[in-house]
């Protein structure tokens, strides 16, 4: 597995990625105050109250009164800001930090926020469709972040990305190789994960699909896909040789 560290992809339309940073901050604050144990261990209550519980969403079960705080439909949004552990949080936030700014740049602040939340909603609905009677709460930003990854892959496949492979080997690779591997891993885990695996792989697939579709219609006018506005290496070499 790998960890994204940074990309060589400057913002073109925005001065700063305010929405991306705000989303990261909200996720971190929710973790610190409700999950980390610093202010009391409320993970179970938070997960059941604000996570998506398919059996509850589909009216196969009801929550205990102390957990039944918001309508089931509202959890399609709130679950995206609750994480079950520190590594779960950090992994999602690293991907959002590295890739979210350029997707926000391509869409604009408000449309990126809508895009992000819609990807998370789509992820939860796909998970719910596959596991309609599950009483395990779905939590985390993985579905929404999957949508960001899909959008970045369609927008900037040729950009160089620094990743840490196996937690210790730094490599600089094109985004198309890094993110395509990640996508294939998610698909493979649909069939390779065992019954004890608590990762919502179908939610990742739902987020990916939503991100790939939404970026087509939500990107700024004039923003091209697949880095078609970048000169190819052969063109750069030709230009340099012509100047000699």
TrEMBL record:
Membrane topology label: Multi-pass membrane protein
Family, per entry: Belongs to the peptidase S54 family.
Any one GO molecular-function label of the UniProt entry: serine-type endopeptidase activity
Name used for this protein in its record: Membrane associated rhomboid family serine protease
Keywords: Hydrolase, Membrane, Protease, Transmembrane, Transmembrane helix
Pfam family, one: Rhomboid
Subcellular location(s) per record: Membrane
Native source organism of the sequence: Tepidamorphus gemmatus
GO CC field: membrane
Record-annotated Peptidase S54 rhomboid domain positions: 73-220
Transmembrane segments: 18-39, 77-100, 112-130, 136-155, 175-193, 199-218
Annotated InterPro entries: Peptidase_S54_rhomboid_dom, Rhomboid-like_sf, Rhomboid_protease_S54
Domain of life: Bacteria
Biological process, per Gene Ontology: proteolysis
């Amino acid at each position: 597995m790998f960890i994204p560290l940074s990309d060589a992809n400057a913002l073109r339309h925005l001065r700063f990625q305010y929405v991306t940073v705000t989303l990261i901050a909200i996720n971190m604050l929710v973790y610190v105050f409700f999950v980390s144990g610093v202010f009391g261990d409320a993970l179970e209550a938070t997960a059941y109250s604000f996570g998506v519980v398919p059996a509850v969403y589909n009216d196969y079960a009801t929550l205990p009164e102390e957990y039944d705080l918001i309508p089931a439909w509202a959890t399609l949004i709130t679950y995206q800001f609750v994480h079950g552990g520190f590594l779960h949080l950090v992994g999602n936030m690293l991907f959002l930090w590295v890739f979210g700014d350029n997707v926000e740049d391509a869409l604009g602040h408000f449309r990126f926020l809508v895009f992000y939340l819609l990807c998370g909603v789509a992820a939860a609905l796909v998970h719910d469709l596959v596991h309609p009677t599950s009483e395990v709460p779905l939590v985390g930003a993985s579905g929404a972040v999957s949508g960001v990854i899909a959008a970045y892959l369609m927008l900037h496949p040729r950009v160089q990305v620094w990743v840490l492979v196996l937690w210790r080997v730094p490599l600089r690779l094109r985004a198309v190789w890094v993110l395509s591997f990640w996508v294939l891993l998610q698909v493979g885990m649909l069939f390779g994960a065992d019954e004890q695996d608590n990762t919502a792989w179908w939610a990742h697939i739902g987020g990916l699909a939503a991100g790939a579709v939404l970026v087509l219609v939500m990107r700024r006018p004039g923003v091209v896909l697949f880095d078609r506005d970048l000169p190819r290496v052969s063109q750069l070499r030709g230009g340099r040789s012509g100047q000699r």
